[in-house]
Write a structure and sequence with these properties.
heterodimer; A: alpha+beta; Aldehyde Oxidoreductase, domain 4; 3 domains; 7-stranded mixed sheet; 21 helices; B: alpha+beta; Ubiquitin-like (UB roll); 3 helices; globular
Chain lengths: 747, 81
């Protein structure tokens, strides 16, 4: 499915800026986030976390804690007796409750549920854990070396050559052509090494849940997540229960950005509830979010690009070494696939490495793996443009990918929008605006795949002609608004007549996680088809009412009408008319669509940024920032612009300030927003978003995912602007004032 | 027969071949054919792969048609955020 579905049409609702349905609830405090749910007799759960980066757990004595007043349950790994069926879920269990070893500072080793917060916290202090502290490693290059402290044994995949530490779990190689021959043809070769720090997604809402498990082994879970079906399946596997017995309801979500695509507290809360027989609420503090949820990978990358004097790239190589915390996570391979994706290269070789270290397991973060790779590749492209005296956009247009290009990851591109974004950037007044002293302008490109996936949608016609739509994906990017708009467009009724909700796991078929920029594409496609399904039923009801064949009825502007003069003369029956009589014409009317909507279209973006560097302090000011992205049809432009602006802002933080700082002892030194600095409004200019609507042929309205590509170009774009402003090439992120000042002085 | 492009690490498990031929008319037959012809791929196939068919990427759709002229490229199983 999902191939060549696009049909050009004039939209009435799609493309407008209707009021968002969640706005009032969010600004009045009525929206219920993960920590807002309570239950009678509820207990408060808290985790005891390892103070060591790497330690063998010799014993845990919970007896004193269990005897304390108000304490109803204490759990350790010994309580999780079921072995999950999936290898990935075994890792998740090991991550949410340590087994034989604590693998990072903050790793949960036990948990308590008590009838007050103070009783639970006091009980945590009474748990005695006997640790054997082990050597640790937190740097990716150090972790790869033979002799490095090793976290696991026997997990190395068959792709890893001999001679590496067991911390190196996987190697992936991509490319085509002959790079040696390509470099031999080059007039100029630039080779650089880069480092990026681990950063956190920085969502405002900490992880929180309320679990309630009965004696009948049935459970309910309310939690903050990007995918409650994933939560259900994962927790059921960990708990050893049938998934149908666990109903998960997603709360309103205060940001996710990929960081809520797995579970942290939920299995622990379920086990505490099972053991205590009471509902258990758990909420992470910000310190816990930083130490023990999933930040992104930190990286070490080598890039080599050869070009002719006219700017044509003759060959390129990239070695992408990513540490993703203490368990396997595929990030390096994505870097190897995405870094050179904007270019048409005859000779290319990239290698991605997955490495474990004594850090929390990385979670996804918008286009996982791609921003760091783009930083390295686009920085070298910028350096080449400068050396050639060439406009950096012209260099990219000369080598840019287009329809028919063999992508860096192998396939031949269909119609794509990279060059459209580059041309729009070059034509924009920003590109030619004058710059002042200590100011520099950078440009960068980025790519992301975009996904589809399992999707179920139900659309119910109510007797009064209103419509309810149930989707199964937490709304992190405006999906309730965009689904209502697409349903209204298809049904031909006002947007206000439709209310979309996020249904729980017992009310709708399977849905994949809200990730991969998939929802507006895949759920939108399912919504349109569910509406068409309902329309077919309503056409049938109208035909039966008129006594004509259903094929002789068409749906126009929200009403059934005879398809032509031969069908007979009948006044149109509106959706409201048909709904009013549905109990007499056959009963309730609903439309459904369930499918694995694969074949989503890829996406490209180009960013421009102006920066000013203070040579006295190394501080960087973002002066102007413009985003150009191929977004397909923008269903609700406000939300699309928000995605582009948000990606840029998160990238600004990643480029300039954000980093996980580990001490010599392997513990995190800046687990809070005072010491881990994300950008605030006063740090930022208005981010100007420019949406290019190049239709995705795989969607009926031409919709393309937009949530992730926007974070891919900023690291490089800002680094290029800063490097040009400071007169020194910056190869390590974040470009914090001390680091930039040192580079300026060294230059 | 369908020409299937391997990524580099899989290529190393197929005696350096960058492209192999598999008899398949859909994704399920392709995966079964790869498993039978190249037992060394088994661990990776078990971990999961993504398949690009004519420039569009598929993870699980067994019955996605593949023609003899289709461009088929194997990829690491993709994950998003």
């Amino acid at each position: 499915m999902a191939k060549d579905e696009f049909e050009k049409r004039e939209f009435k609702i799609v493309g407008t800026r209707v009021p968002r349905p969640d706005g009032l609830d969010k600004v009045t405090g009525r929206a219920r986030y993960g920590a807002d749910m309570s239950a009678p007799g509820m207990l408060f759960g808290y985790c005891l976390r390892s103070p060591h980066a790497h330690a063998r757990i010799k014993s845990i004595d919970t007896s004193e804690a269990e005897a304390m007043p108000g304490v109803k349950a204490v759990v350790t790994r010994a309580d999780f007796t079921h072995v999950p069926a999936s290898g990935g879920t075994k890792d998740i269990l090991d991550n949410v409750m340590a087994g034989e070893k604590a693998l990072y500072d903050g790793h949960t080793v036990a948990a308590v549920a008590a009838n007050s917060r103070s009783a639970a916290k006091a009980a945590l202090k009474a748990i005695k854990v006997d640790y054997e502290v082990l050597p640790h490693v937190t740097d990716v290059d150090e972790a790869m070396k033979p002799g490095a402290p090793e976290l696991h044994q026997g997990r190395q995949q068959e792709s890893v050559p001999e001679g590496f530490s067991q911390n190196v779990l996987a190697r992936s190689q991509y490319g085509h052509g002959d790079v040696d021959a390509g470099f031999a043809k080059a007039d100029i070769i630039v080779e650089r090494s880069f480092k990026t720090a681990a950063t956190h997604q920085g969502y405002i809402e900490p992880h929180a849940c309320l679990a309630s498990m009965g004696n009948d082994n049935q459970a309910d879970l309310f939690c903050c997540t990007q995918g409650h079906f994933m939560v259900r399946n994962t927790c059921a596997d960990i708990m050893g229960m049938e998934s149908g017995r666990l109903r998960v309801t997603a709360s309103e979500i205060g940001g996710g950005f990929g960081g809520k695509t797995t579970v942290f507290l939920e299995p622990v809360a379920l086990m505490l509830s099972k053991k205590s027989g009471k509902p258990v609420k758990m909420t992470m503090s910000r310190d816990e979010v930083m130490r023990a949820s999933g930040p992104t990978a930190s990286t070490s990358i080598d890039i080599k690009i050869g070009v002719k004097k006219d700017g044509t790239v003759t060959a390129a190589t990239g070695d992408f070494r990513y540490q993703s915390g203490c368990f396997y996570s595929m990030n390096g391979a994505l870097g190897a696939m995405c870094g050179f994706a904007p270019y048409d290269l005859e000779n290319l070789k990239t290698v991605g490495w997955e490495v474990v270290t004594n850090r929390p397991k990385a979670a996804a973060y918008r286009a996982p793996g791609a921003p760091m790779a783009a930083f390295a590749v686009e920085s070298v492209m910028d350096e080449i443009a400068k050396e050639l005296g060439m406009d950096p956009i012209d260099l990219r247009l000369l080598n840019g990918a287009e329809e028919g290009t063999k992508a860096a990851y192998g396939p031949t591109y269909p119609a794509i929008g990279l060059k459209a974004t580059l041309k729009a950037a070059k034509a924009h007044p920003h590109w030619s605006a004058p710059l002042g002293e200590n100011q520099g302008r950078g440009v960068g490109c980025g790519f992301w795949f975009n996904f589809g996936g399992n999707t179920s949608v139900s659309l119910m016609i109510n007797p009064d002609g209103t419509v309810n739509l149930s989707e199964g994906n937490p709304d992190i990017g405006g999906s309730r608004a965009s689904m209502s708009m697409m349903a209204a467009e298809e049904l031909g009724i006002p947007y206000e007549q439709i209310r979309t909700i996020v249904a729980d796991t017992a009310s709708l078929g399977e849905n994949d996680v809200t990730d991969g920029s998939r929802v507006t594409f895949a759920v939108g496609l399912a919504t349109i088809k569910a509406a068409r399904h309902a329309i077919e039923i309503m056409k049938g009801r109208a035909a039966a009412t008129w006594g004509i064949d259903a094929d002789a009825v068409e749906w126009v502007d929200g009403a059934a009408q005879p398809a032509g003069p031969n069908a007979g003369k009948f006044p149109p029956l509106t959706l409201k008319d048909i709904a009013a009589t549905m109990s007499k014409t056959g009963g309730p009317i609903s439309g459904h669509h369930e499918a694995n909507a694969e074949g989503a279209g890829v996406s490209f973006g180009t960013h421009i940024c102006d920066t000013e560097v203070d040579p006295e302090t190394g501080a960087v000011k973002i002066l102007r920032y413009t985003v150009f992205q191929d977004a397909g049809k923008a269903v609700h432009p406000d939300y699309v612009e928000g995605q582009l602006q948000g990606g840029a802002v998160q990238g600004i933080g990643w480029a300039l300030n954000e980093e996980y700082i580990y001490g010599e002892d392997g513990t995190l030194q800046n687990a809070g927003y005072l010491d881990y600095r994300i950008p605030v409004a006063s740090d930022l200019p208005m981010i100007e978003p420019v949406i290019l609507e190049i239709p995705n042929p795989g969607h009926p309205y031409g919709v393309r995912g937009v949530g992730e590509t926007g974070i891919v170009p900023p690291l490089a774009t800002i680094a290029n602007a800063v490097s040009r402003a400071a007169g020194v090439r910056m190869t390590s992120l974040p470009m914090s004032p001390p680091k930039l000042l040192a580079a300026i002085k060294a230059n | 027969m369908v020409a299937v492009t391997l990524w580099g690490s899989l290529s190393e498990l197929a005696e350096g071949q960058r492209e192999v031929e598999i008899k398949a008319s859909n994704l399920r037959e392709l995966l079964a054919g790869l498993q039978a012809a190249y037992p060394a791929f088994a661990p990776q196939l078990e971990r999961g792969i993504s398949v690009s068919i004519d420039g569009k990427i598929y993870n699980d759709s067994w019955f996605q048609p593949i023609s003899e002229t289709s461009e088929v490229v194997l990829l690491n199983r993709l994950e998003g955020g």
